[in-house]
Design a protein that fits this description.
Two copies of one chain form a homodimer.
Chain A lengths: L2 H11 L3 E4 L17 H13 L5 E3 L2 H5 L2 H17 L5 E8 L3 H14 L4 E4 L5 H8 L5 E7 L12 E2 L2 E2 H9 L8 E5 L7 H7 L5 E3 L9 H8 L6 E5 L1 H4 L7 H17 L4
Parallel strand pairs in A: 1-2, 1-10, 2-3, 3-4, 4-5, 5-8, 8-9, 9-10
Antiparallel strand pairs in A: 6-7
Helix pairs in contact in A: 2-4, 2-11, 5-6
């Protein structure tokens, strides 16, 4: 998906919401466990209920890998199902990959050729040759970890070097490799006070923002400080939406939770 | 596998060699493509030919994921096959994972419970809660990326902060989370001049050393500067061994390449 299409989609659906699909057999409603493929069945119903009220989905690949081959099949089926609906939506493989060049190429092939994702999250620790293979695909995106939402983000990302934090070095340096058309950054909502500063060093790039909801990030502060003229944010919510109900009504409740988030976001979208 | 078992194995087999299993359908001998599962067939023959001459195997997970479900099945079969031989060997999932705590837990489950790996490589960028879930398993290991072998290692790992390089911060800080019994570091052979210094800040930890062979690292310098009293090194070689011949003799040639590497290593093992 082009940047222009993504922007148009946000305007059309009136939301910057990305729904996380971290599907865990231990957390999905019990009645689904009798389905032939419970993971896929859960995803399908969540997607059916929310696709008109979000602009992106983000399966975290760990949750699928944990079930081995079965999980992998469920992931492939989920992507195919979403694409079969013929409704534009931005698909993010939250994989946090990053390896030497020839290996990153393999990962790019997995998520961009074998499966039809629009974007992959990538860890920057290994530097340029771990990121650039993902940038060689037209209309595909890399989302580089900048400042993450977890507690451990304080351990290394906040180290200062030459008057910049490590995450600022990452955000600055990677802009030499990609453009606002193919490079986004993960910026956690748990650091709302940092958004203004980060926006000043990455004016046109989209940020994927986890950490709103269950992790405690403040949506209003994130929007107020992080948006740019092209919206510039994809706000992820996972547990607050997909696990809002553990009953047979889970999909309907997920939809109403999505609508709730959108209502909070509405004032920022024009 | 315990640290003591690993040390005994190195002594018994007279080698610190780890064979990389980066199995790529485009690189394996053509005659194998007719097999029912070419990836597994290649791995099986490589393992049969080399297991007595190495102490570890390291499949890079990217190569398996690139083939989707089929690749995943081949990986599971490979691990099961190696374990069925009942010969001790250290199995490393080169996955370079790293995510927020509850996600890292899923990855740990995948590689330690679903499959019987001894160790997983982990990227440190996201800090403590991305590493510690892997440390909760008895006799299992985390191998944290320290100073990697690729060109991109210069981009961020070499940033200086408070008189230390980032990779030194990583090596120092993670030692608060793990011990020499469950924590190793990836240190690339392409930085042989750094080994003495790194050994001085991680005296008892094993280092997994990629970059010997195709990537140009110098085995002698690595051994001379990187070993400790318990050997302390696992030296990885991939392409130089598994792709040494593209013919029907590939397994025999891989074996003789392994023996070659071992010969160079022999003077350091006593």
């Amino acid at each position: 998906m082009h940047r222009a299409e993504l922007i148009a989609l946000i305007r059309q659906r009136n939301t910057m919401l990305c729904v996380g699909l971290d599907t865990d057999l231990q957390l999905i409603p019990k009645h689904l466990l009798q389905a032939e493929d419970p993971i896929f069945e859960f995803n399908k119903q969540i997607v059916d209920a929310t696709i008109d009220y979000c602009v992106a989905y983000k399966p975290n690949i760990a949750f699928y890998e944990a079930f081995g081959t079965k999980g992998w099949i469920a992931l492939e089926k989920t992507v195919e199902y979403i694409r079969s609906l013929n409704k534009p939506v931005f698909l993010i493989a939250d994989a946090k990959r990053g390896d030497i060049g020839n290996t990153s190429k393999m990962y790019a092939r997995t998520f961009f050729e074998h499966m039809d994702f629009d974007a992959v999250t990538v860890a920057p620790y290994m530097g340029e040759d771990s990121v650039t293979p993902f940038l060689e695909y037209k209309n595909k995106w890399v989302i580089v970890l900048g400042l993450t939402s977890n507690k451990g983000s304080n351990d290394f990302q906040m180290l200062r070097s030459e008057d910049q934090f490590l995450y600022e070095h990452v955000i600055t340096k990677t802009q030499q490799w990609g453009t606002p058309e193919n490079l986004m950054f993960v910026i956690g909502a748990t650091h709302p006070e940092k958004f203004k500063e980060i926006r000043s060093i990455a004016k046109d790039h989209f940020f994927l923002v986890p950490g709103v909801g269950a992790q405690g990030g403040d949506l209003n502060q994130v929007c107020a400080n992080g948006m740019n003229d092209d919206f510039g944010l994809l706000i992820n919510s996972t547990r607050q939406i997909i696990y809002a109900s553990g009953g047979e009504d889970f999909a309907a409740v997920a939809q109403s939770q999505a609508l709730d988030v959108n209502l909070q976001m509405k004032q920022y979208i024009r």
